[in-house]
């Protein structure tokens, strides 16, 4: 599983970072970004929760 954050939709709520800091981080501008590699298996459930809980629905699975 790979994910990416649509920077045009992200508003920097940080919900994804709260739910799965192993996959998501915030840029210097305060917007979310995802790790560029495959999501480790042990973090897939938390990543899916972050996708579902994103207020802007800015996270997409590749």
Automatic annotation (TrEMBL):
SUPFAM superfamilies: 4Fe-4S ferredoxins. Keywords: 3Fe-4S, Electron transport, Iron, Iron-sulfur, Metal-binding, Transport. This is Ferredoxin. Pfam families: Fer4_15. Gene3D superfamilies: 3.30.70.20. Its cofactor is [3Fe-4S] cluster. Residues 1-29 form the 4Fe-4S ferredoxin-type domain. Coiled coil: none annotated. GO terms for molecular function: 3 iron, 4 sulfur cluster binding; electron transfer activity; iron ion binding. Ferredoxins are iron-sulfur proteins that transfer electrons in a wide variety of metabolic reactions.
């Amino acid at each position: 599983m790979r994910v990416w954050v649509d920077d045009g939709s992200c508003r920097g709520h940080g919900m994804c970072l709260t739910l799965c800091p192993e996959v998501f981080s915030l840029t210097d501008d305060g917007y979310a970004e995802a790790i560029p590699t495959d999501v480790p298996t042990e973090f897939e459930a938390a990543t899916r929760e972050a996708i579902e809980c994103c207020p802007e629905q800015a996270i997409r699975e590749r």
